[in-house]
Amino acid sequence: MGRVSRAQAQENRQRVVATASRMFREKGTTVSVADLMKAAGLTHGGFYKQFASKEDLVDEAITHAFAEQAAHSAVAFEEHIGEHEAARRTLIENYLSVWHRDHPADGCPVSGFAADLGREPEQAARAQDVYINGVRNRAARLATGDDDGMAQLCTMVGALVLARATRGNPLSEELLQAARTALAESTQPGPQRRTD
């Protein structure tokens, strides 16, 4: 069999990164290189022709996941141009949905990579900048007035992680609903305070 062309090698690399991004969000970064390459439809031996280490792939997979999410969010926000509150509500509803709970491979990298980055300090150091920027950007999409969106993001990510951990029990959907309700109430205008 002949050598792979440069274009084919680049296409293979992109396929591995996209596959890793999905598998790592679904199963964690402990997925073996052999399983990952098999899922990408490539041989195990080809991995080290493309990547110096698995850690390099993890970095690229996280970057890919956040880029993919940003593109998806941009489309969703364009549907609500000039209506930040409607876009924010849609984001919350989609994030705290049963579909998102049940499809972590296609889900948010904030929740998808949090546990791995928290458990692997040396890995976290390599990917932390991309992850931190992703967290800040997601929170910024939720920001309203004086609220920077961080507490809302924490509520969403925490609820999603807990809902995934309790999937199959009614508590799972209760957690998603509780978070949706809390976030809806947190942005309702409160009673006006008298200033006289």
List keywords for this structure.
single chain, mainly alpha, globular
Order of helices and strands: HHHHHHHHHH
Poorly predicted runs of 5 or more residues = 189-196
Q: What's the rounded overall pLDDT mean? A: 86
The overall strand count is 0
**Structural class of the secondary structure composition?**
mainly alpha
Assess the beta-strand content as a share of residues.
under 5%
Helix content: over 70%
Q: What's the total helix number?
A: 10
Shape: globular
Radius of gyration: 19 Å
What can you see in these coordinates?
There is one protein chain. Helices cover 72% and strands 0% of the residues. With 196 residues, it is mainly α. α7 packs antiparallel against α8 (121-142). It is globular. The model is unreliable at 189-196 (pLDDT under 50).
Tell me briefly what this model is.
The chain is mostly helical. Helix content is 72%, strand content 0%.
Q: Topology, pairings included?
A:
Layout: H1 6-27, H2 33-40, H3 47-50, H4 54-78, H5 84-95, H6 98-102, H7 109-119, H8 121-142, H9 150-165, H10 170-186
Helix pairs in contact: 1-2, 1-4, 4-8, 7-8, 8-9, 9-10
